[in-house]
Each structure stands twice: as structure tokens, then as C-alpha cells.
Amino acid sequence: MSRSIVRQSKFRHVFGQAAKAEQSYDDIRVSKVTWDSSFCAVNPKFLAVIVESSGGGAFLVLPLSKVGRVDKNYPLVVGHSGPILDIDWCPHNDNILASGSEDTTAMIWQIPDHTPTRPISEPIVVLEGHSKRVGIVSWHPTARNILLTAGSDNLIIIWNVGTGEPIISMEDHPDLIYNVSWNHNGSLFCTTCKDRRLRVCDPRKREVVAERLAPHEGIRPMRAIFTREGNIFTTGFTRMSQRELGLWDPTNFEEPIALLELDTSNGVLLPFYDPDTSLVYLCGKGDSSIRYFEITDEPPYVHYLSTYSSKEPQRGMGFMPKRGVDVSKCEIARLYKLHERKCEPIMMTVPRKSDLFQDDLYPDTAGPDPALEPEEWLEGRDEDPILVSLKDGYMPPKSRELKVAKKNLLDPRPAPRRSMSSVDGSSLPVVAGDSRHSRMSMTVTKASQR
């Protein structure tokens, strides 16, 4: 009898465990900017955290292996003249990161594998097109060099960072945009806005294809993310200021697939979604807990699994791509929790006795190779992410290393302000330095055809 009541799921016993004290990153002055972003971005190589800085904006980039106390003189990434609001690692190159700032610009940075000896102050591309602060930066999941930015001017701009040029601009939002989320193949994105509407946008048609007024009745900020199946998972507030989560079918916005009240608290719930396992992790700003749920196609569709609790409230959170987890320990997710002065990794693990590779926990996951070039995506092509196996633990291909070469200083031709370098059809952003700096160009060779 009990067997029919208990729902079968291999993720029912997932548990969270904080890293040991010596595996944390200590003495980090986390930014105190009042902006509802995660303040943290992580990939299999680096941890990036937006930090307090005088005279502009800065963020700290650490190799994942550099645990322990961070030297107060550790070189920062500086270049913005105002506080930084959002950062995002490129999914197709672990050394490229985008940042958005109150100074109305977004910048693209190349982070070297070695520890820099002085602050990094020269971005490889500066994206100028917004008239107010840039609060959201988000890379396209499958197309190379495509970046979305959203600003407090209620404008969404999609850039080809290989040329530094805006290629799509959308002015469909009458008020502040809270968040943006691409779908699985990057054909659509959804947004939440201060006007209390949830919108689904087709960027290449430059139109809103579906919208829903007040998926959550409260007036406080909402968040929305696409699931792998194309549904939209939302977090928000009820009219009585209770926190709430919902699951919606964008082809039929009238009724939610699921709507669930959680608790009464002021912190905005930041959702982090794992498309491989269909688990979503909810991290409230100012909370000291992480709740996680499984999304399935059977009622009640959003199933509560468990809660990881600690004593310290979180200032922000980073979410590791699946190719950065430790498959030998059955780790299915890793979050990086920001405290006031440190960053603490939290591992989500499925308890298994076997030491063998658990292929049911690790389906092939999105790899670092882009499925499309910018021109192909603009012309209307859609491709799912190119998948890689985690069976032997993910190892990045060596041929993806960037080679930076100095331009011939005796070249008499005037250098353009922005250009694009390409080898074998592969392109990466290049920007010309001013008269004080030698011009740098970047080339990258494609991974060899297997």
C-alpha cells in the first residue's frame, strides 16, 4: 500500500552539503548594491564575484582551485565607471565573461588562465547602446557570440560581440525588466517586468508572441525561467506577500499547470534550473536555505524534494554548469553561496553505494561547442545544444585555448575601432586599443573534427 503512495524518483534523497571551511573562498568583499541579481557566476574554470570597490565597478575572478583566504591585493577586473550589476560566463568559452553596469555599458572580458599580476582594465569589447544602467546580461545558449542585454531604459538589445554591433533591438517593455531567460535552443526568451506581465518574445521577429498579466498577484518582483520542455517556471508573491511558485504553458497562459504557495518572506526567490535532471533550486535573497523541486509531467507537476538549511543568510548565489560537477561523488549540482565576506560551495549529491559511473544521473549535457554561427541564427536556424558525455569526467579540449597575438605595429593602415578575426570560420571579438596600447587580436582554432 505504501509503495503506491510514495512517488518514485531517483532524486527523492538528494542532500546538500557545504564544503569544508578550507574549501571556501574567504575575505571577499561582496557588493552591497541593491539589485536583485545573483552577484556571482561560476563555470568549470573560474569563480567570479561582484565586489565592493571605490571609484567605479569591479569584480573578482578566481580559479576554482584557489580556495582559502583571498589576498586583499588580489587583482580585480576593473573598467566600468559605475557599480557592476550583473555578470555571465560565456557558455562556449570558459575564459570569456560579460558584465553590465550602472555606467550604461556592457563589457566583454577575456580572463587569462594564469593569475594576473595587476588589475585587468581593458575589455576586449565595449557594448554601448543603452541610455540607462544595464542590469541584465545573458549569453545565447547555442549560437556563438550572441549576447542579450537589458537596461533600465526598458530596452532589450541583442549583440554580435564578434563585431561589437547591435543586431536586434526590442522596445516592447513599458517598465523595468526584472529578468530574462532563453529557452533550450535559444529561439525564444521570456521576461518578467515591473508592469506585472510575463512575456514570451521571439527576438528575430522582434515581437511578443505570448504574455500573461500577473501570473503572481503580488506587486513585488517576479522571476521566470524556461524549462527544457518549453514550459515556464515562475517565482513571485501573492497579494498577501506570500512567496509563490508557478508552472505555465506559454501556448495556453489562461491557467497555470501548477501554483504553489511557499512562505511569507521579503526575499526575491532566484531559481536555478538543471535541464538534465529537471530539478529547480530556489535561493531567496537573505534566506539561509535552498529549496529544491523536481518538475515532471505528472500531477502535481512541481514536486517538493527537500531543503538545505544553514545559519548564514545568502547575499547571492552562483550555479555551476553540469560539466563542472564531480561525477565520481554522484554530485548532480553545485551552488556557490555568497556570505558577507566569503563564498561557500554547496554540493547537491544523490546517495549511491556504487563507485561506478551512474549514467541515469548524468545524461549527455550541453558542451562548450556552439551549435550555430551568429549569421545562421539570425537567418532563422535553431539547433539544440551540442551534447557531451560526462562518463570520464569532463575535460575541456586543449585546442580551445585562446592565442593572443600583437598586431604588427608598423602596419601603415589605420586600425578600425572594432573588427572581427576569424580562423576556419570561427570568430571571436576583437577591439582596437587606443594610442597608448598596442592593438590586440584574438584567434581561436576549432576543436578537431571527431
TrEMBL record:
Keywords: Coiled coil, Repeat, WD repeat
Family: Belongs to the WD repeat coronin family.
Regions that span the bilayer: none
Domain DUF1899 residue range list: 4-68
Keyword Transferase: no
Protein name per the record: Coronin
This protein's encoding gene: coro6
Biased composition regions of type Polar residues, renumbered to the chain: 440-450
Protein's organism: Ictalurus punctatus
InterPro entries attached to this UniProt entry: Coronin, DUF1899, WD40/YVTN_repeat-like_dom_sf, WD40_repeat_CS, WD40_repeat_dom_sf, WD40_rpt
One GO BP: actin filament organization
SMART domains to which the protein is assigned, alphabetical: DUF1899, DUF1900, WD40
